[in-house]
């Protein structure tokens, strides 16, 4: 098997004798007409097959995959180094959004973070409920 990478113009080859592993994807089962075409409902959505209990039926598709070590010509993996932004910068950004957009941020002991469009409010768990300052900052952003 030979593939040319579009991004770098590198020819990639599968090593001779390489064996594939298989992954499975769960897919919904759709109703088909007599020509084998998937039927659509009144809304233009595909019609799923429903069993006797009212549950949608599913099917499985199997795909062959190869480990990247089986590919010749592939560049060596380079680990991404994510730059961690200082917590103070994130606090400044948060403050600026609150002032500019009249956004309210409320902290409680409740462990769910969410945005309420009706109240234009961000609910945040208290910072001490997070594993790290970085986890808190990621959620706040």
Descriptive notes:
The chain has 141 residues and is α+β, with helices and mostly antiparallel strands. The chain has 2 domains: 2-72, no CATH class; 87-140, no CATH class. It contains 2 helices and 8 strands; from the N terminus they run E-E-E-E-E-H-E-E-E-H. Strands 1-2-5 form a 3-stranded antiparallel sheet, with no helix packed on it. The longest helix is centred in the middle third of the chain and has 15 residues, at 87-101. The two termini are 44 Å apart.
**How many distinct beta strands?**
8
Q: What is the string of helix and strand elements?
A: EEEEEHEEEH
Runs in which pLDDT lies below 50 for 5 or more consecutive residues are none
Total helix count?
A: 2
Choose one word for the global shape.
flat
Structural class: alpha+beta
- Terminal Cα span: 44 Å
Helix content: 10-25%
Strand order of the largest sheet: 1-2-5
| Largest sheet geometry | 3 strands, antiparallel
How many domains, in number, for the residues? 2
- Determine Rg (CA atoms, Å): 25 Å
Mean pLDDT across all residues, rounded?
86
Relative strand content: 25-35%
